[in-house]
Amino acid sequence: MRTNRLQKKRRSPCLLFFCSLCLLSLCSPHSKNIKDITEQRFVPSHRIKRLVFPEKEWEKKPAESLCRNAGTLDKFTKAVGGSGVIIKNGYLIKIWGDPTGRTMWASATKPVLSTLLLFAAQEGRVEINGKVKAFMPELLGKDQNITFHQLANMTSGYARRESPGQAFSYNDYAVKLYHNTLFNRVFAADPNQIILDKSRFGPLQFQDGELFEQVEKYGWFVHTSPRDFARIGWFWLNKGNWNGEQLLSKEFFERYLKNQVPETLPISVKPARDYLGIGTYGGSGNQSPFGLGNYGMNWWFNAGKRIWPSLPEDTFQANGHWNKETVTVIPSMALVIAGVGDFRPFHPGPGPADSLMGLLAEACGQKTTR
After folding, report:
1. For 23, 39, 356, 370, which has the most beta carbons within 10 A of its beta carbon?
2. In this structure, are 95 and 177 located in the same domain?
3. What range(s) does the Beta-lactamase-related domain occupy (predicted)?
């Protein structure tokens, strides 16, 4: 026992010396510290690369420098037709058609409305789960319990028989209520002045004019070029950060940039009267059976109930006219695709639309087998 203790005592200075050398090595300017090593091990590869942000123009790079099968992008753009842009790591790597041409993006506008809701919450104008009646006292009966969150998730029940939160309905009467409340009551200002304020989207430096344009009877829609809508997609991908400035709290994106509609929620089957007479945002009160398990804050999500099995789970999209105008964001690939064309009929799961979108994964990322 005594011999063992002596041996341990003799080894102790050596151990201390060895540990000291290790600590000095870690502190050396030529060595990586533990935090750096850990971050590089667990942070997705696209986040380790330097992401850039456009100024007056998108910086261009050849697709071949960032995508391993860049030629597949030609198949994608030829199949879609129309016009658009593809952004990778913040660089413009592909254009087709006229990426400067301004067009109306229809329901792809809706996530922009919800982004304005998040700005309003950040500015203390509203609470996301607050009741809309605080701004629209004209609401009656069950509709007095409608929240902004429910309007953004298509579960408000406005112009439907169901109570708020009790059913899902892709409902353009409710979207018109959402639109009118935000623009006329919450912000009470011109939509372009609202969105282009220096504390909101002003720093994005849109190239092709104002963002919103009014469509008679229906309301204000995003009316811009693919290359400018891609800036909004890049803003979403970076969770509200623009070139180092956190314009919109990252916490909002971590909380709301995911499905908000339970897969078990029923689809609305009972229409009711638009008693406010506000009209529709363009469509009917119950346009689609899709949305359960993959919708929220007016985005479509790929996690959970997969819309595009060939794309990564973190994919999300702003969608107009059921796949005519789309902004697709794939954070794990640092990829944004903004385009107007034929993205094939919208239908979750395997099919023509998924096969088309899968070309993006083949070109610029690892194609999933799920």
Report:
1. 356
2. yes
3. 98-176
Query: Does residue 221 fall inside a structural domain?
Result: yes
Where in the sequence is the domain holding 71, given as residue range(s)? 63-364
d(Cα 22, Cα 33) in Å, to the nearest integer? 11
The length of the chain in residues reads 370
Chain segment 201-213, per-residue pLDDT in tens = 999 999 999 999 9
- The number of domains in the chain is 2
Helix (H), strand (E) at residue 6: helix 2-27
Cα dihedral 113, 252, 313, 319 in deg (nearest 10) = 0
- Does residue 44 lie within any of the structural domains? no
3-state secondary structure of 296: strand
Answer for the pair 256, 153: CB distance below 8 angstroms, yes or no.
Answer: no
Contacts of 348 (CB under 8 A, 6+ apart): 290, 294, 305, 306, 307, 308
Per-residue model confidence as pLDDT tens digits over 57-115: 999 999 999 999 999 999 999 999 999 999 999 999 999 999 999 999 999 999 999 99
Going along the chain, which residue ranges are E strands?
83-88, 91-96, 103-104, 212-215, 219-224, 241-242, 245-246, 295-296, 299-301, 316-320, 325-330, 335-340
pTM: 0.85
| Strand residue runs (E) in 59-126 | 83-88, 91-96, 103-104
* DSSP run (H or E) holding 115: helix 110-122
Q: What are the residues whose beta carbons fall under 8 Å from the beta carbon of 251, sequence distance 6 or more?
A: none
